[in-house]
């Protein structure tokens, strides 16, 4: 019996090649793209969940500052983790991680590599987290303060196939680190990504030599703290206890609060569980479902529309003894066979699309047939789509009354026609929403790229000077002679991404209990003029000896502490005490997802290790070559690594740009699948109205009249879809834009453009079949009827 069902289903598919091809193409595209998006969504949800004790590991974050300056800081002070483990029984273990900005190049014999993926960490790093040690002791990863644990790929890069244990890597040609362990490369779905891990104890001793005691310092917000808690710990109660520890050391921080963010959520959520990326993931999940629904609607529409053409076949089956259940199974088998072919083609398509998809998304997804997670996604997707697409058409087709059908008295009911219209409207509602989404996302990304940042970063590249810094004046004079170089300045860090943070602040008029956390940056005397920044009041540094006791604040800092007439007032930040001589207008030194944070700038020439060179643009290659030649003159042993500020800025939005491109492709595919459905329905409509078209042409109707007649009903449905989609799309995109502190407004023209695009696309699709029917010879159509 099953064999007969399959044979009959196959014959029907072959007999109706045009509709079979439309269905297979639509379902294949829908399944392939839907599954690819679901792979992406699954990967996003899987971040940091692979750790054995992930459910008990939390990142500690501080809700610090008072008034307008209050915000969440991911970095914490060094002592908090240690004190928490010592004093709180709920805390089972602690890991502190700090970015290693002390060194930037590492060598072994004649091999020298630049690397900024290096961190200081406590030894518990390898027991709290599930990063497997390949060589070495996970319980004692560091033999001493001058040890280093490296990843497998780093070991291969430095030492080839030799055993790396015991070998010495030299940092910046001055500090030796002995390899004490090799760890497996960090998984792609890990938010923690490093090539080398050095002991936190080295960092603490290194800073102590600079007279900064991190072990008892509640001012330096420079490390990430992870707590491994005992199961069943109350987070609310623990946060209160952490605050009590903090307040004992910083009595003024009465508004401080500690938040505990589960490690498995830190990729997509902020510490207060607000959006950090979860909205985008949900949007993509909805897009995947919409694409699958659109593919389902195509099949349901074509199956139900063509039911009238199969009424006599079904009636004959009933007359010779076929029961309703047998007919139902027959049509289910027919749908299942179509889906089986589509699913096979979809898996083949996924295999070929995966490299391009990875390049667009910036991921390294692998279609591993042994991974049960992948098969769960595939099976659930195909099964759900199959069930959604097969039941209604099968029930409809098996319900015809045989005698009426044979007499030609069966016609589509009003309910069936209305149902198909609803499905077409639904398809285009989804398509229009995706078009609006594409327009809004593209506009927002363009806005970010074109928005005035408050400083000029054009044609400027930067690199660390190293030993060249001791000869800066001579090097600067030499470089300014080179063609293509317009200007030069320096600072202690990259302007696009300021890292320094301190909560040790004081100023004239500071209220009792008021706390203030700021970004810090050391700049040269010509830094402000180089970047064409504007002063709101006061002046910039001049390079005078007393400038080391002067400070410049940005407008955000002045406004958030409520400082009136700041020029001449005393201000202290970190270990720098001085007088405010200027207020610089706000500029963006972080992602536009964040509001401009308070910042303090000071002049301290010995801290200025980062150089900026502005070029003419056209002569940038000559400028880079000249800079490299001079760099090698002073730093022959170091690699020359430069970064254009435009590239650094674009990196801040790399994820959003990749997601925007993906969204564009998905929207185009969804619209394409919708058009396939319209094409099939237009072909069916032309087929069942052949006699009417022939009569109209005999009576004088032209091609344009017939085309408009056949297109009218469909275009009307698209207009209804525009009305429904507009408020939904407005709400969804307004919600998405809330993730950006600086954003565009959702404008009326976006919906007008989306609507016009949908109408034009639909009309072109329908016209293809309408014109074909209109130009047909009416005599032949009337004779065949």
What would you say about this model in short?
This protein is an alpha+beta fold and 785 residues long. 49% of the residues lie in helices and 17% in strands.
What can you tell me about this protein's structure?
By secondary structure, this protein is α+β, with helices and mostly antiparallel strands. It is built from 23 helices and 26 strands. The strands form three sheets. Strands 1, 2, 3, 4, 5, 6, 7, 8, 9, 10, 11, 12, 13 and 14 form a 14-stranded mixed sheet that branches. Strands 17, 18, 19, 20, 21, 22, 23 and 24 form an eight-stranded mixed sheet that branches. A four-stranded antiparallel sheet has the order 16-25-15-26. Strand 10 (168-171) and strand 11 (175-183) form a beta hairpin. Helix 13 crosses helix 22. The protein is elongated, with a radius of gyration of 33 Å. The protein starts with a helix and ends with a helix. Residues 405-415 have low confidence and may be disordered.
**C-alpha Rg (nearest Å):** 33 Å
Total strand segments: 26
Structural class: alpha+beta
- Number of helical regions: 23
Instruction: List low-pLDDT spans.
Output: 405-415
User: Describe the biggest sheet?
Assistant: 14 strands, mixed
Instruction: Tell me the distance between the termini.
Output: 36 Å
Mean pLDDT: 83
Instruction: Give helix % range.
Output: 40-55%
User: Which descriptor suits the 3D outline?
Assistant: elongated
Strand content bin: 15-25%
């Amino acid at each position: 019996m099953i064999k007969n069902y399959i044979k009959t289903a196959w014959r029907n598919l072959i007999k109706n090649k045009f509709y079979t091809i439309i269905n297979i193409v639509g379902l294949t595209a829908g399944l392939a793209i839907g599954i690819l998006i679901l792979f992406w969504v699954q990967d996003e949800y899987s971040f940091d969940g692979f750790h054995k004790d992930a459910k008990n590991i939390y990142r500690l974050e501080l809700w610090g500052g008072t008034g307008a300056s209050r915000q969440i800081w991911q970095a914490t002070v060094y002592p908090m983790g240690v004190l928490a483990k010592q004093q709180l029984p709920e805390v089972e273990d602690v890991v502190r991680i700090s970015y290693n900005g002390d060194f930037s190049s590492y060598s072994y014999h004649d091999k020298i590599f630049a690397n900024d993926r290096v961190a200081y960490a406590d030894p518990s790093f390898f027991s709290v987290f599930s990063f497997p040690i390949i060589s070495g002791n996970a319980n004692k990863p560091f033999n001493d303060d001058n040890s280093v644990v490296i990843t497998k790929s780093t070991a291969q890069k430095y030492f080839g196939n030799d055993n790396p244990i015991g070998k010495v890597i030299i940092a910046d040609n001055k500090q030796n680190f002995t390899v004490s362990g090799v760890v497996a490369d960090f998984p792609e779905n890990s938010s923690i990504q490093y090539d080398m891990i050095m002991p936190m104890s080295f960092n603490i001793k290194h800073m102590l030599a600079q007279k900064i005691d991190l072990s008892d310092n509640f001012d330096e917000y420079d490390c990430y703290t992870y707590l491994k808690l005992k199961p069943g710990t109350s987070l609310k109660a623990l946060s209160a206890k952490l605050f009590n520890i903090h307040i004992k050391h910083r009595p003024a921080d009465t508004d401080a609060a500690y938040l505990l963010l589960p490690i498995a959520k830190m990729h997509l959520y902020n510490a207060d569980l607000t959006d950090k990326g979860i909205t985008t993931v949900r949007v993509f999940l909805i897009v995947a479902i919409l694409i699958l629904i659109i593919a389902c609607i195509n099949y349901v529409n074509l199956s139900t529309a063509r039911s009238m053409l199969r009424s006599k076949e079904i009636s004959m089956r009933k007359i010779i003894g076929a029961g309703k259940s047998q007919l139902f199974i027959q049509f289910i088998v027919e749908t299942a066979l179509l889906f089986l072919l589509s699913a096979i083609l979809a898996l083949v398509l996924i295999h070929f699309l995966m490299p391009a998809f990875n390049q667009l998304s910036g991921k390294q997804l692998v279609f591993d047939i042994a991974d049960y997670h992948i098969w769960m996604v595939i099976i659930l997707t195909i099964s759900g789509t199959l069930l959604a697409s097969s039941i209604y058409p099968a029930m409809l087709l098996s319900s015809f009354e045989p005698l009426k059908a044979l007499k030609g008295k069966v016609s589509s009911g009003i309910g069936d026609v209305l149902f198909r219209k609803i499905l077409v409207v639904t398809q285009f509602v989804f398509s229009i929403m995706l078009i609006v989404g594409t327009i809004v996302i593209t506009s927002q990304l363009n806005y970010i790229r074109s928005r005035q940042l408050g400083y000029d970063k054009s044609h400027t590249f930067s690199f660390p000077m190293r030993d060249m810094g001791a000869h800066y004046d001579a090097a600067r004079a030499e470089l300014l002679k080179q063609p293509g170089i317009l200007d030069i300045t320096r600072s202690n860090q990259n302007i696009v991404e300021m890292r320094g943070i301190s909560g040790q602040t004081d100023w004239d008029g500071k209220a009792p209990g008021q706390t203030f956390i700021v970004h810090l940056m050391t700049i040269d005397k010509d830094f402000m003029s180089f970047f064409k920044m504007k002063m709101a009041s006061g002046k910039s540094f001049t390079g005078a000896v007393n400038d080391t006791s002067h400070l410049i604040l940005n407008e955000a800092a002045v406004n958030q502490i409520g400082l009136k007439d700041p020029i001449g007032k005393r201000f202290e930040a970190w270990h720098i005490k001085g007088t405010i001589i200027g207020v610089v207008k706000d500029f963006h030194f972080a992602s536009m997802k964040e509001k401009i944070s308070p910042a303090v700038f000071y002049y301290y020439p010995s801290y200025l290790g980062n150089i900026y060179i502005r070029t003419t643009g056209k002569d940038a290659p000559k400028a880079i070559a000249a800079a490299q030649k001079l760099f090698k003159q002073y730093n022959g042993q170091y690699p020359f690594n430069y970064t254009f500020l435009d590239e650094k800025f674009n990196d801040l939005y790399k994820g959003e740009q990749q997601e925007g491109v993906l969204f564009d492709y998905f929207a185009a595919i969804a619209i394409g699948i919708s058009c396939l459905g319209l094409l099939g329905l237009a072909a069916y409509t032309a087929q069942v109205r052949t006699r009417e078209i022939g009569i109209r042409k005999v009576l004088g109707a032209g091609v344009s009249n017939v085309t408009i007649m056949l297109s009218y009903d469909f275009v009307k449905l698209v207009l209804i879809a525009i009305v429904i989609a507009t408020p939904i799309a407005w709400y969804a995109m307004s919600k998405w834009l809330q993730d950006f502190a600086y954003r565009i407004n959702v404008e009326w023209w976006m919906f007008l453009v989306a609507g016009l695009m949908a109408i034009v696309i639909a009309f072109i699709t329908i016209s293809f079949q309408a014109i074909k029917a209109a130009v047909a010879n009416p005599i032949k159509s009337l004779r065949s009827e």
